[in-house]
Design a protein that fits this description.
Strand content: 15-25%
Strand order of the largest sheet: 3-2-4-1-10-9-11-14
CATH class of the largest domain: Alpha Beta
Bound molecules: 5-amino-5-deoxy-1-O-phosphono-D-mannitol
Number of strands: 26
Distance between the termini: 10 Å
Helix content: 25-40%
CATH architecture of the largest domain: 4-Layer Sandwich
C-alpha cells in the first residue's frame, strides 16, 4: 500500500521517479507526487526543493510535471489513502513548515494526533490531514545540520509502521530511508542509487538490491549506501541479485496485466512444480522447508495463516492435506488470528501464505505465532519479501511478478505448493508408492489441463456478457470446490463491483436460497467427484425457484449441462486436481464481466495490490 521511491545520481531525477512510480502504481493509485532538489540558479551551490503532486493516477502526475524539471536527487510516492481524503494536499511528498525537508511515507503513524498537537503547540501549521505530515516536521524539529541524526531522533517519537524516504535541501544528493513494518529496498546502480518499496520500481536500472529489515535506517547518495540500526550501530547487508527480467513486468501484447497473468498459468504452475516432483520415490523435494524427515514426521497439525486469495489457496491446501495425509489442518484469516491469542502447539506447523510477502495482517500473525514458539514457514511469491525472510523456511511459488490487483497466477502456484507438500507428507504416512506415482503424474499434468481450459475463453466471454449486468451473484461448491467458490466470488466483486457471495453449496438451504430470483444467477462448481450428486441436487433446488444457473463442470457430463442454463466444460481428470482447472473459468468470467462493464481491471477502485496496513 503506497509506493515510495528515491533516486540519487547524475541523471535528471524526475523521469526516473515517474517511471518507478508507474511500475509501482499497483501499490496504490489515488494520488501521487515527486519532489526533487534543484539548484537555486546556474552554478549555485544552494538548493531548494521543487514539488509536484496530483490526485489520480501517475499519468495525471506526468501531465503536470514540467518537461525540464531539474534536479538529480529526489523522492516520489503513489498513495493509497488511509488518513485524509484523496486530495492534492494530502498527496505525498509532504514538506515541513520551512519547505526545506520532504518526506514520503508508507504505513500508519498511530500516535500522530499527539505528535501533531505537540508540534502545533510549537508553532507548526499543518497543511494536510495526513498522519504522515508529522514526520517531516519532527525531522525539522531535530535538525541541527545532519539529516541522518534528525531522522533518527524523529523516528524515536513514532509509533506505528513506516517505510520512509526523506530529503533536505541543505544536503544535496542525500536520501535517508528507514523501515518499520513497510518494505524498503536499496538499488545499487552504476554511480547512482535507488530506494523503493519494491524492486519493480528500479528493475530497469539495476538488479543489485539490498533489503532493509525493520528497525534499520539507510543513507544513500550516488556513491553508495550506509545502513545502521536503531542504536546507531553499523549493519552489514548482503547484496542480492533479482532473478527475473524486465519483460516479466511488462504487458507485452496483452491489453492488461490480469489477462496476461491468467494466460501465463500453464507456465507459472510449471515453474512452481519445477524439479520438485520426485518421480522415483513418488514424493516431493522441498528443500526450502528446512525440516528433516524426523521433524516432518513429528508434525501432528498444520495451520495456514493468510488473507484474501491466499487464504482460499490455504483452504484448498488444508482440505487436501486432511484427505491425503490424514493430518488435522485448518486455514485461519490472519486479520482475525493475530488478535485472538491463539493456542500454539510445538508439534504444529504453521504456513504463512502470501503472494506479496508483505501483507501486514499475515506478517503480524506470523510474528505472534513465532513469539509463542510456533514454527512458521512461508509460501510466498515475492523473493526476499518480509514474510519470506522472517519465516523459518518455506516454499517460493515462482509465479513471477503479479501486477494486476486481482490475484490469479499466484493462486494456482500456491495450490501447486500445497499439492507438493501434501504429496510429501502423505508419502511419509499412508500413501503407497503406486498411489503416490499416480498423484505425481497427475500433478505434473496440470499445466496441460489448464491450457485446455484457457482455450475455451470465447465461450466464457459469451457467457460473461450474458450475465455481466446482474447485480448479485452466488458462487457455490462443495468440498475442495467450496474455497474455489469463495475465490470466484472474490474475483468477481473486486474487479467488476458486482456483489457476489461464495457459499458452501450445502449451506444455501440454511439462508441464502432466500436471495434466489430470476435476477440472481448462481454459478455452481460441479466436478465428477463423490459430492457430484449432492451439488446437482442443490442446482435443481435453485432451478426450481427460478434462479438462473451457470455450471462449471466436466466435459461429457450431460446431466449437469442439461440442468444448467449455461455450461462451461473443463477436462475430466483426477477429482483432487479440479481446483486448478475450475478456478480458471471463474477468473476469466470475472475478467470478461469487468471488461464488459468498462471497469479498470488491473487497478479496481479502493484496492491496492500489497496490503501493508491493517
Ligand atoms: O499478497 P497476499 O497474498 O498476502 O495478499 C492477500 C490479499 O490481500 C490478496 O489475495 C487480495 O485478496 C487480492 N486482491 C485478491 O485478488
Amino acid at each position: 500500500m503506497c509506493g515510495i521511491i528515491g533516486y540519487a545520481g547524475p541523471r535528471q531525477a524526475a523521469p526516473i521517479l515517474l517511471e518507478g512510480l508507474k511500475r509501482m502504481e499497483y501499490r496504490g493509485y489515488d494520488s501521487s507526487g515527486i519532489c526533487v532538489g534543484t539548484a537555486d540558479g546556474a552554478g549555485s551551490t544552494s538548493y531548494s526543493l521543487a514539488l509536484v503532486k496530483k490526485i489520480g493516477k501517475i499519468q495525471a502526475l506526468r501531465q503536470v510535471v514540467p518537461k525540464d524539471f531539474p534536479g538529480s536527487w529526489g523522492i516520489g510516492h503513489t498513495r493509497w489513502a488511509t488518513h485524509g481524503a484523496v486530495t492534492d494536499r494530502n498527496a505525498h511528498p509532504l514538506l515541513d513548515n520551512s519547505g526545506r525537508i520532504a518526506c514520503v511515507h508508507n504505513g500508519i503513524i498511530e500516535n500522530y494526533r499527539a505528535l501533531r498537537e505537540m508540534l502545533e503547540g510549537e508553532g507548526v501549521v499543518f497543511q494536510s490531514e495526513t498522519d504522515s505530515e508529522v514526520i517531516p516536521n519532527l525531522v525539522a524539529k531535530y535538525y541541527e545540520g545532519d539529516l541522518e541524526s534528525a531522522v533518527k531522533a524523529a523516528l524515536a517519537n513514532l509509533q506505528g509502521t513506516y517505510g520512509i524516504a526523506v530529503i533536505h535541501a541543505a544536503e544535496p544528493g542525500r536520501i535517508v530511508g528507514a523501515r518499520n513494518g513497510s518494505p524498503l529496498v536499496i538499488g545499487i546502480g552504476d554511480g547512482e542509487m535507488f530506494l523503493a518499496s519494491d524492486v519493480t520500481a528500479m528493475i530497469s536500472h539495476t538488479k543489485q538490491v539490498v533489503y532493509l529489515n525493520d528497525g534499520e535506517l539507510v543513507v544513500v547518495d550516488s556513491s553508495g549506501f550506509r545502513t545502521t540500526d536503531r542504536e546507531d550501530r553499523h549493519v552489514d547487508k548482503k547484496i542480492e541479485k533479482v532473478s527475473w527480467e524486465l519483460g516479466a513486468i511488462e504487458k507485452g501484447d496483452y491489453p492488461c496485466y490480469m489477462e496476461k497473468e491468467i494466460f501465463e498459468q500453464p507456465e507459472s504452475i510449471e515453474r512452481a512444480l519445477g524439479g520438485r516432483i520426485d518421480f522415483e520415490t513418488a514424493s516431493a523435494k522441498l528443500a526450502g522447508l528446512n525440516l528433516d524427515r524426523r521433524r516432518l514426521g513429528e508434525i501432528s497439525r498444520v495451520e495456514v495463516i493468510a488473507a484474501g486469495t491466499s487464504w482460499h489457496a490455504g483452504l484448498v491446501g488444508v482440505g487436501l492435506l486432511e484427505r491425503m495425509a490424514r493430518i488435522p489442518a485448518s486455514a485461519e484469516l490472519a486479520s482475525e488470528l493475530r488478535y485472538r491469542n491463539p493456542v500454539v502447539q510445538r508439534d504444529s506447523l504453521y504456513f504463512a501464505v502470501s503472494q506479496s510477502g508483505e501483507t501486514a495482517d499475515t506478517l503480524y500473525a506470523l510474528r505472534e505465532m513465532q513469539r509463542k514458539g510456533g514454527h512458521v514457514l512461508g509460501i510466498c511469491n515475492v523473493v526476499g519479501s518480509t514474510i519470506a525472510r522472517e519465516s523459518e523456511g518455506g516454499i517460493y511459488v515462482h509465479s513471477g511478478p503479479e501486477i494486476a490487483v486481482a490475484s490469479t497466477k499466484a493462486f494456482t502456484s500456491q495450490l501447486a505448493a500445497f499439492y507438493l507438500f501434501s504429496l510429501l507428507m502423505s508419502r511419509m504416512r499412508d500413501l503407497s508408492i503406486s498411489e503416490g506415482s499416480r498423484f505425481a503424474r497427475a500433478l505434473a499434468g496440470v499445466p496441460e489441463q489448464v491450457k485446455k481450459v484457457l482455450a475455451g475463453r470465447d465461450e466464457i466471454q459469451r457467457i460473461a456478457k450474458k450475465y455481466s449486468h446482474s447485480r448479485d451473484f452466488l458462487f457455490l461448491g462443495r468440498g475442495l470446490m467450496y474455497p474455489i467458490a469463495l475465490e470466484g466470488a472474490l474475483k468477481l466483486k473486486e474487479i467488476s463491483y458486482i456483489h457476489a457471495e461464495g457459499y458452501a453449496a450445502g449451506e444455501i438451504k440454511h439462508g441464502p436460497i432466500a436471495l434466489v430470483t430470476p435476477e440472481v444467477p448462481s454459478l455452481f462448481l460441479v466436478p465428477d467427484d463423490e459430492l457430484r450428486e449432492k451439488t446437482l441436487s442443490n442446482m435443481k433446488e435453485i432451478k426450481a425457484r427460478g434462479g438462473p444457473v451457470i455450471a462449471v463442470g466436466v466435459e461429457g457430463d450431460d446431466e449437469v449441462a442439461a440442468t444448467a442454463d449455461d455450461f462451461i466444460a473443463t477436462p475430466r481428470m483426477d477429482p483432487r486436481f479440479y481446483p486448478f482447472t475450475m478456478v480458471v473459468p471463474l477468473q476469466l468470467f470475472a475478467y470478461f464481466c469487468a471488461l464488459d462493464l468498462g471497469r479498470d481491471v488491473d487497478q479496481p477502485r479502493n484496492l491496492a495490490k500489497s496490503v501493508t496496513v491493517e
